[in-house]
Amino acid sequence: MSDSLDARTRDEIDDQVAEAFDAYLSDRLAERGPLRAALTTGRGARVVLGTVALGALATALTPGGIAAICWIWGAITVIDVAWLWAAHRR
Fold first, then answer.
1. Which of 1, 46, 55, 79 stands the most exposed, by the fewest C-beta atoms within 10 Å?
2. What integer is the mean pLDDT of 73-81?
3. Secondary structure of the chain in the HEC alphabet?
4. What is the pTM of this model?
């Protein structure tokens, strides 16, 4: 019973995190800046969306703990910020 409760709790937390991230992205895209410029011009959208998709896949397949997942998403963040910064400077 506790395993199913933990799974349900994790699913609820995942849903809440996804909703919060979606709201955050919506707010960020409404603001002016490199993220909005890159996504509206299409220059960085493929790279950003590709790294997020690969990150989701890597997170799902990672047998390790939280540390491995933090390294994966930390690397994705660095790559995306560098790519958006480079796209903004062009």
1. 1
2. 86
3. CHHHHHHHHHHHHHHHHHHHHHHHHHHHHHCCCHHHHHHHHCCCHHHHHHHHHHHHHHHHHCCCCHHHHHHHHHHHHHHHHHHHHHHHHC
4. 0.48
